[in-house]
Amino acid sequence: MESIPVAFDRKAFLHTLDDQIDSIALDLPLRG
Known about the structure:
- The protein contains one helix and no strands.
- It is an all-alpha fold.
- The longest helix has 29 residues.
């Protein structure tokens, strides 16, 4: 049953990473 939590953590991690990329993408035009 280890694969289920690992898959969930990976999905959550990717979602967080996606949010960070979105934030950076929004910041870049303001800094440019």
